[in-house]
Every structure is written in C-alpha cells, then in structure tokens.
Design a protein that fits this description.
By secondary structure, this protein is of the alpha/beta class. The chain is built from eight helices and six strands.
Length: 155
C-alpha cells in the first residue's frame, strides 16, 4: 500500500489489488469479477489518497487457485492496464501458496517483498528460484520491518 501511495503522490493513477483470495471479505471484489458475478466498476473503491484506488479480494471462493488459473485474470489485467498507470497486486506469500505464482505469471513483473525475521534465507532463495522458473520478470526486492540506523543508535 505504501508503494501505491508513493506513486499516487507522484501524480500516477494507481490500483492496488488485494490478491489473497483466501482472505476473503464480506464485500464483492476480485473473486466475484473473475467468476463473472460482479462488474469491475462495482468493486473498485477510491482510497483516501487522490489517484489511489483499491480492489478488495471479495468473498472467498471454494478453490482460489482454480479461479486464478482461469482465462479471466489475464483479460482483467489487460483491461486495467488501459485504465491505470500502475496496477499493484498484493499476493499471498510465495512460500505458502501457488496463488502468487499464478498471478505473477500474468503480470509485467514482480517485486519480492521479504519481512526481516519472518523469512529465512533458504526460503527467500526458493521464492526467487520459483519466480525465475516461471519466467516472471523480477523488478527487485524489498526488505520490510528492518531496523533503521536511528532505531539502533543510542540517541
């Protein structure tokens, strides 16, 4: 979400998609769009920041991986590319589910986000290897929850 805010501050029109369908909500969203039971325009919501929009995961489907593997996701992303300067998809952890790999195969690139202390070096390497094998273009990596120099100082 921070990346989306930053891009919106620069004047870009940004959509952040909550792509973890296993963490469904009570509202309609991505899963209903992919299933064909909701329209895109009914699901996208403006965020508090100008230029930033959100697409919730929607209600949890019976089989998220199967829904993501269908023909609807690539078409949806193509449509969104025409409307937004940036489309960011927050996926489930690559180390836990296949869903993130399915989504990344439909994207222009992936940014690997690693939380310090939560991901081991071997797990991070496995995630990188999976992305490379899938042909996903790796745009970079971000380490979150890392201490800053000020947090480590005695000031």
């Amino acid at each position: 979400l921070q990346l989306g805010r930053g891009l919106a501050v620069l004047g870009k029109k940004v959509l952040v998609i909550r792509g973890d369908l296993r963490r469904g909500t009570d509202s309609i969203g991505l899963s209903q769009i992919l299933a064909g039971s909701a329209d895109l325009s009914d699901c996208i919501r403006p965020a508090k920041h100008p230029g930033l929009f959100m697409l919730p995961p929607g209600k949890q489907p019976e089989d998220p991986a199967e829904l993501l593997s269908g023909d609807a996701l690539p078409g949806l992303l193509e449509e969104l590319r025409q409307e937004y300067d940036w489309v960011l998809i927050d996926t489930p952890p690559l180390s836990q589910r296949i869903d993130g790999m399915i989504i990344s195969a439909c994207c222009d690139g992936a940014l690997l986000v690693l939380r310090q202390g939560a991901v081991s070096l071997p797990d991070a390497r496995r995630c990188l290897s999976r992305l490379k094998r899938s042909g996903t273009r790796l745009l970079g990596a971000v380490l979150t929850h890392a201490p800053t120099p000020m947090e480590d100082s005695n000031l």
